[in-house]
Design brief:
By secondary structure, the protein is α+β, with helices and mostly antiparallel strands. About 40% of the residues lie in helices and about 30% in strands. The protein has seven helices and ten strands. The strands form two sheets. Strands 3-2-1-4-5 form a five-stranded antiparallel beta sheet. A five-stranded mixed beta sheet has the order 7-8-6-9-10, sandwiched between helices. It holds the Pfam family GGDEF. Its cofactor is Mg(2+). It is found in: Cell inner membrane. Its EC number is 2.7.7.65.
């Protein structure tokens, strides 16, 4: 009695050049078939004749496929074989990546938005609770921006907000993620960073704001930043508790006279 064919779920397959005239297909970790089937697919090499439109030099960039894989109920040269059919979805994949980027990005600044921030903070909180990895949060907003908007126009206010985003990109580390919550309020998530390290980074960022934003001052009105800094604590029930504590520290910085950093 023959074996019943095993049907693997759809998987994303990526085609990369391995050597001149050949390409290899790799399955993404998502929805991959059992390791034995994956091994069979990974070892199979295609010539340029097997992929429509592929030149002798092979692809210049990854080609994405959506494939369906099925184990066959017979053997070839005493080896198990699989049948798979793939459709080139490179254009669709690029569009999906672009749409995902747009959904996570603030249009004015190019920084991450609240949606992306909340997703990142949830992951940071889980890592902090499970592995005791320190994570800090910096929340800040701009002092006197409303006055600048009223006296010099909202286009200048937008220019200031974009300048703040540029300063964040040039000052923060690659592991930090800066997000614009809305208006003139921003949050920076700093993974693997304790409160002392976060305060040093906040002071550096604060000094950059003082140096760069002075050019937007109007008469006696100076654009500065007030900041609240905190770290995820063991007693926090979620990242929202940490975020609220950073917000309270920011509120204290405002009440103490603005243009300063308060930790909590």
């Amino acid at each position: 009695m023959g074996r019943t064919p095993v049907r693997a779920p759809p998987a994303i397959v990526r085609c990369r050049r391995r050597s001149a005239g050949t390409t290899a297909f790799f399955l993404s970790p998502d929805q991959a078939p059992p390791p034995r089937r994956l091994h069979l697919v990974e070892e199979y090499e295609l010539s340029n004749r097997d992929v429509k439109g592929l030149t002798d030099e092979g692809p210049t960039e990854p080609i994405w496929f959506e494939g369906r894989i099925q184990a066959l109920d017979f053997r070839v040269d005493d080896e198990e074989v699989v049948l798979w059919v793939a459709s080139n979805i490179s254009e669709r994949h690029q569009l999906e990546v672009r749409l995902r980027e747009l959904s996570d990005t603030d249009q004015l600044t190019g920084l991450f938005n609240r949606r992306k921030l909340e997703r990142d903070l949830k992951l940071h909180y889980e890592s902090a609770m499970r592995y005791a990895l320190p994570t800090s949060i910096l929340m800040f907003d701009l002092d006197n921006l409303k006055t600048i908007n009223d006296t010099r126009g909202h286009h200048v206010g937008d220019e200031i907000i974009r300048a703040v985003a540029d300063i964040c990109r040039s000052t923060l580390r690659k592991t930090d993620s800066a997000c614009r919550l809305g208006g003139d309020e921003f949050v920076v998530a700093m993974p693997k960073t304790d409160l002392e390290q976060a305060m040093r980074l906040a002071r550096r960022l604060h000094e950059c704001f003082r140096q760069e934003l002075g050019q937007y001052s109007a008469e006696s009105v100076v654009v500065t930043a007030s900041m609240g800094v905190t770290a995820i604590a063991a007693e926090d029930r979620s990242y929202e508790d940490t975020l609220k504590r950073a917000d309270r520290a920011l509120y204290d910085a405002k009440n103490l006279g603005k243009d300063r950093i308060v930790s909590a």
